[in-house]
Each structure stands twice: as structure tokens, then as C-alpha cells.
Amino acid sequence: EIYHPANDENTQNELKKIAFDKKLIITGGSDYHGHYSKNKIPICGIDIPDQIYNNLYQYLTNVVI
Description:
Blueprint: H1 9-21, H2 50-62
């Protein structure tokens, strides 16, 4: 989860480099755990670039189960 409320831009850039070097899929999310979580992070609380969704879709549609 590169795109996460706890990761600032510098951290995201470092994680992107690691993911690229290790050929990992980049993901992200708000880390929403419901209304009663301690962190009070709202659902859809973080923006994720469209390219991340596109990459995940391409990966998942090409995986043989």
C-alpha cells in the first residue's frame, strides 16, 4: 500500500522505487476499518491515481486461476 494516509510524498516515492525494483504491484487505500476504528480514517479518505486501478485490472484479468 504505497498510497496510504500514513505515507507522505517522500515515503511514497521511496516505496514506488522499491516496488519497481522488485516488480511488485502498487496498491493503496484509506485503511478504512469501519465507524468504530481508533484512527477515524474515513472511507475513500485518500486519492489513488487512476493508473493504479488500471494496472490492477490488467493484472487481475491476465491471471490464470
